[in-house]
Amino acid sequence: MTYPDATVINYINSNFVPLQINVQSSSDLVGKYRVFWTPTILILDSNGTEYYRFNGFLPPDEFIPQLEFGLGKMFLEKQNYKAASIQLKSVVDKYPMCDIAPETQYWLGVSEYKIAHNVDALLNAWRKLRKDYPNSIWAKKVSYVKE
Amino acid sequence: MSRRVLSFLVVLAAIFLAKPVIADSKDTLSAISWEKTFEDTITKAKAPGKPILLDFFIPT
Asked: Which of A59, A118, A121, B24 has a Cα-to-Cα distance from A30 of 20 to 30 A?
């Protein structure tokens, strides 16, 4: 189980306002967020706008990176590129072997590019993606980038 | 002498009374502080601008 894990508890209590909804008792929210399966985990901003979601149980060492990545995606979509870059870099630095790492490296390149339209930063991040995660679908997405 | 005994008993009582308080605060920290309603969650999140973690579950 993920929620009894002390690291998960501390991370959630420190970084989020957490809300747990029983799908059998709240049809309004189930409809609003188009939930058809459990568990469904969503990251929302403080207005309730959704920025990231994932389904299914995960062990703590994959669950926390997903949450941290979700915050990075939220910053990215809010066009707060510096915050996104810091957040996403932190994920790949701390959890280089987790399943979300290749996608994180992809979006890290995008956020670094967006800060100052720095093409070199983008290409370097994507070269690192190809080098570190050659078998990931995210490496395939940047396969046209020259070495 | 009786004063010393009395002081000892007071300290002993304080230790026994404090123990459940310490245990309670540990219990509080050992669980996620889930909100009960969406409205309360938004209210709590807005002031500090904190993101929300929304977990849809089904009781097992």
From this structure: A59
Of the partner residues B35, B42, B55, the one whose CB lies closest to the CB of residue A48: B42
Measured distance CA(A59)–CA(A4) in Å, rounded: 11
A9 touching B, CB under 8 A?
yes
DSSP character at residue B35 = B
* A111: region left, alpha or beta (phi > 0 left; psi from -120 to 50 alpha): alpha
- For residues B54 and A19, is the Cβ–Cβ distance under 8 A? yes
Helix A81-94 vs helix A60-77: crossing angle, to nearest 10: 160
CB contact under 8 A, A22 and B55: no
Cβ separation of B57 and A18 shorter than 8 Å?
Answer: no
CA count, 13 A, side-chain hemisphere, A20: 11
- pTM for the model stands at 0.85
Quick: pLDDT tens for A86-111: 999 999 999 999 999 999 999 999 99
Please give the structure tokens belonging to residue A143: 């396969």
Give the ipTM: 0.94
